[in-house]
Amino acid sequence: MTSKEGDLSPHYPNMAAQTDAKKTMPKYIKFLFGGLAGMGATLFVQPLDLVKNRMQLSGEGGGKRQYKTSFHAVSSILRSEGIIGMYTGLSAGLLRQASYTTTRLGIYTILFEKFSKNGQPPNFFMKAGIGMTAGAIGAFVGTPAEISLIRMTADGRLPVAERRNYSSVFNALARITREEGLFTLWRGCGPTVSRAVVVNAAQLASYSQAKQFLLGTGWFRDNILCHFFASMISGLVTTAASMPVDIAKTRIQNMKVVDGKAEYRGALDVLYKVIRQEGLFSLWKGFTPYYFRLGPHTVITFIFLEQMNRLYRKVIMGEEGTGSSL
Ligand SMILES: *[C@@H]1O[C@H](CO)[C@@H](O)[C@H](O)[C@H]1NC(C)=O
Fold first, then answer.
1. Which stretch of DSSP H or E encloses residue 46?
2. Transmembrane ranges (predicted)?
3. Is the Cβ atom of 179 under 6 angstroms away from ligand 1?
4. Residue 120's beta-bridge partner residues?
5. Which of 151, 152, 163, 164 has the most ligand 1 atoms within 8 A of CB, as the residue to mutate?
6. Domain coordinates of the chain in residue numbers?
7. Number of other residues whose CB lies within 10 A of the CB of residue 267
8. What is the pTM of this model?
9. Hey, is 88 helix, strand or coil?
10. Is domain 15-315 annotated with CATH 1.50.40.10?
11. pLDDT tens digit string along 46-76?
12. Rounded to whole angstroms, how far apart are CA atoms 233 and 210?
């Protein structure tokens, strides 16, 4: 029994309400809400993304680590680049959400409903598959914004003369295309897509699963508190699983190709070199900012999304039910 059917019929036994209940949200609205929710969340967590990227690049090649801990990174970035410096690459972060999250959540929502039978959500493995498919397609669409984001957030750690100086994400996209060719926009596409598959399998499936579990305990209702805890659990699983793929992505997208010679041949080469030169646990460099980015990003995204969906159902569709589609 979904909350939609369960809540509506006793209160609105008339035909008009019955028709309303069958109306669904237009698909483009789902895409739009997904992207907006992600962009809203990015405004809060952009600095953490910057710190994570700096940590992942720190000590590259087995040299001296630029930052010892994430706290050291934050204080040294604040000192040398200021508060504004923490928001470097914001335009790329926003475009990344607009492209990646819009596509991913839109496709996820559509597939989720397609594979729901008689109000029963798809099973765990189905949800994981849906999450992975949506994530992979979203990541491919989002790769150009992603490489811009990595390079912009990485820039400030270099001596002035070695910087790339992209002024905004649009400048980054234009210059990468002009200086390195159109296909460079999709450099690191492999690990970007792999990372998204891991993240989305873990995140979207564990979110729905955690929410169903929390509701099943009888201690929670389908409200913000439940969404909050479900997201926190989901974030922890996702961070641990996806960091090694993420560091490969970050380093490949940031690398410079000098005289046709690339620093890394591919994702496996990054993993091999990191483990050999910096130690196994370096694969999880930047765990703290990553979790504190991912957790709240997930929380804020889903909260925005659930609220926008609810408001839309209430205002546009005149529904009282609060059932969500995720
Ligand atoms: C970035 O700006 C600095 C200082 O103006 C300059 O030295 C450097 O060459 C610039 N980088 C590029 C790629 O133009």
1. helix 27-57
2. 28-48
3. no
4. 117
5. 163
6. 15-315
7. 21
8. 0.81
9. coil
10. yes
11. 999 999 999 999 999 888 889 999 999 999 9
12. 7
